[in-house]
């Protein structure tokens, strides 16, 4: 079991010696985690998952325990969810903004392209709404959801 030291630099933590290599980088270990706790150091005994593993991917509930690749395999779907999150933020739906942020972080960490709903349902913070949005996105009907939210924002 390896220990991972987390050092802080103004709310941005870099895990050192985690054995995670970014694309297009030689011998670069570690990845960035975001937190609200400044100037702290912690020890984590394990970043490897308990439930289902896809290589180094873990289904850990908390983002600080999941390895996240530099380039997301589901970048287009993440961009779609990010646009929805921004529209919710402009509309003042702060609870939904938090839900979108958690789902986006979970999907970004998944190392393979999402191809079925079963895999998406098993990811942390990906509930029925995210599954519904993935269905719309995969069919190409996602523009209607964005247009509906934009119209709602303009009405307010």
TrEMBL record:
- Know the name of this protein? Crossover junction endonuclease MUS81-like HHH domain-containing protein
Which SUPFAM superfamilies does the record match to this protein? DNA polymerase beta, N-terminal domain-like
| Segments forming domain Crossover junction endonuclease MUS81-like HHH | 73-131
Q: Among the record's GO biological process terms, what is one?
A: DNA repair
Q: Which gene encodes it?
A: pol4
Q: Name one GO molecular function term.
A: DNA-directed DNA polymerase activity
Which species is listed as the source?
Answer: Schizosaccharomyces japonicus (strain yFS275 / FY16936)
Q: Which PANTHER family match?
A: DNA POLYMERASE TYPE-X FAMILY MEMBER (PTHR11276), DNA POLYMERASE TYPE-X FAMILY PROTEIN POL4 (PTHR11276:SF29)
One family from Pfam that matches here is: HHH_8
List, alphabetically, the InterPro entries matched.
Answer: DNA_pol_lamdba_lyase_dom_sf, DNA_pol_X, HHH_MUS81
């Amino acid at each position: 079991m390896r220990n991972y030291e987390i050092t802080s630099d103004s709310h941005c933590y870099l895990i050192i010696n985690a054995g995670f290599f970014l694309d297009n980088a030689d011998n670069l270990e570690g990845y960035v985690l975001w937190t609200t706790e400044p100037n702290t150091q912690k020890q984590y005994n394990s970043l490897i998952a308990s439930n289902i593993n896809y290589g180094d991917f873990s289904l850990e509930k908390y983002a600080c325990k999941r390895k996240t690749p530099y380039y997301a395999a589901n970048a287009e779907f993440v961009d779609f969810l990010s646009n929805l999150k921004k529209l919710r933020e402009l509309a003042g739906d702060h609870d939904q903004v938090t839900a979108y942020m958690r789902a986006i972080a979970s999907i970004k960490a998944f190392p393979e392209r999402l191809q079925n709903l079963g895999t998406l349902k098993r990811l942390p913070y990906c509930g029925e709404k995210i599954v519904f949005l993935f269905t719309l996105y995969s069919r190409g009907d996602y523009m209607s959801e964005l247009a509906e939210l934009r119209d709602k924002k303009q009405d307010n």
